[in-house]
Description:
By secondary structure, the chain is mainly beta. The protein is built from no helices and 11 strands. Helix content is 0%, strand content 45%. Strands 2, 4, 5, 6, 9, 10 and 11 form a 7-stranded mixed sheet that branches. It is globular.
Amino acid sequence: QVQLEESGGGLVQAGGSLRLACAASGPTFSASTMGWFRAAPGKEREFVAAITWNGGRTYYADSVKDRFTIDRDNAKNPVYLQMNSLKPEDTAVYYCARDDRPWRYLGGDYYPQVSDFNSWGQGTQVTVSA
């Protein structure tokens, strides 16, 4: 059974940085596409960033491009989300997610959807004050 656990959330001033981590247990983690999503109060969960199983491709929502970076360490199994230049509109619960289909090839025009991911963490709160 796959379990995902996020950490690293907190309160930060606008312009600051946070680094989220997602620890995954269970089989075939290193073969899985991993993603970060977020849900602001009263809004639906939305895509933030994703990384292919081998780290060869990364994907970002336009709203976070050039500010956030996703990376992974398959030897130690966490997936990270480095968030810089944070804005109040980044305030949300951030979720780590895993696509349980192993070794997927994803092209440059792929846009991750919530429905592509089968396993989810409980989320970590990120609050950015103005």
